[in-house]
Give the backbone structure.
Amino acid sequence: MSDEIRNGDDEVLDDATTPEEEPRTDAGDEPVEEATGPAPAGGIGRRDVIKALATVPVFGALGYSALRRKGLAKDERERLLAELGIEDEGAAVFSELERRTHPDTIRIGIVGYGGEGSSLVRSLGFAHPDWIQARREAKLENPRDTWLDEWLDQENLNLELTAVCDVFDVRAEAAIAASTQPIRPGGDTRQLKPAKRYRHFEELCNAPDVDAVIIATPDHWHSRITVAAAQAGKHVYCEKCMTRTEEEVWPMADAVKSAGIVFQLGHQNRQMESHEKAREVIEKGILGPITLVETTTNRNDPWGAWVWDIHEDGNPRTIDWELFQEAAGNKVPFSLERFFRWRCWYDYGTGLAGDLLSHEYDAINQVLNLGIPHSATASGGIYFFKDGRDVPDVWQAVFEYPDRDMTLVYSSTLANGRDRGIVMMGHDASMEVGTRLKVTADGSSTRYKDMLEEGMVKRDRPMLTYQSGFKGVDAVTTPTQEYFASRGLLFTYRGGRRVSTYYLHLREWLNAIRYGGETSCNIDRGIEEAITCH
């Protein structure tokens, strides 16, 4: 099983595993705002609707699902296809990735090399030798396991991993091994020097041979390290949640903006084809005025509840505990549980809000451009995992957007795996958003009244669907893994080819550093995410 899959963000300095044995664990441009206000008197004519729908590009099965019903007469099917102006097959949202030759080398420093940090570094082309071997063995056992092939097919990004900082000796040594591993994507055959280990992040940020810093630590370190990197003029890729507290948001944002560095927050779901398609649906007003959005997180295995493995070599001699908890909310005696399962405590993490709501909110913000809510209420408790944690395992929140005439509702449990996903509910239709989109007309819609009466559209079947080049979730077996894949946090498609969303999100950041332009999850989007989740 690929260790590309992991829970939330098993971010460094305290992930439950080393890169050698990573766990099988577990979501664009500025969004277009949804048109609001009452529907025109008398509704919109059928031809107006068809005209609007026909301008939404299609890929695979995008169009009225009724067109595929066996009971629909051929002549009626052909007439509807003609009126819609669409074909059964259409163009992909994104074309094949343009491969570039990058003449300048960017030197990378990584702070935190746990599960998430090793995934990020690997997505840049630096895989630990044990990962290469594990992927080869997985391919022999299951020919459909194509992760190694897809990784090797990535573009040569012309990078060097020059610096590593981690408080756990085992992880730091693993990162150094990955920095010189000779098998790399895109035919990169350079003989590279080993990365240098730094004990403290400030030393790494000030190193002359570091151009950009990846921060994949637990949440309580994000702000401090970002500020130090920005002040040193280093570009930053920071994992989510952007900060541990609301108070940390503004100094971090000010440092990034003052330094003028390129910043990317680690919401790789921004690279999803289906999210871009959802934005087009919203832009066309197909749902009508949206008043309610529901999103959820359900997971039902220990990994998904952050009960991660405790490494056999973890002890006070191999872990710099005092440095680890230097930025923590409270100081406590050495604890392997707190180090390896840090998301279970608010001293280091942000609970369900920062780990999982953050992905859901960012996906919705990408599609609807919501921004920061006017108000929020939340409740929850520790109802299943009675293991000493202080973060809830069941939690829900309600966010009000009165300026948009809309409410956002989030609910989550770590003790049930029912998949519920994101649903955007408009007066005329609802849209389910994931790796697949489904738009279903509302039975009381004024816009689709005629179509519903004629039977062209059914209230119990999607009238519009989009499947993002999906071929099934290969080698994804646990409930948490399936959740992670369904949220687009593993891969998406470009030109019909499956591509890692980690790689695409990092590549976007590197291209902005080299060639200018803005990242899709910049510091302003990060502010919105952090304030909403806190």
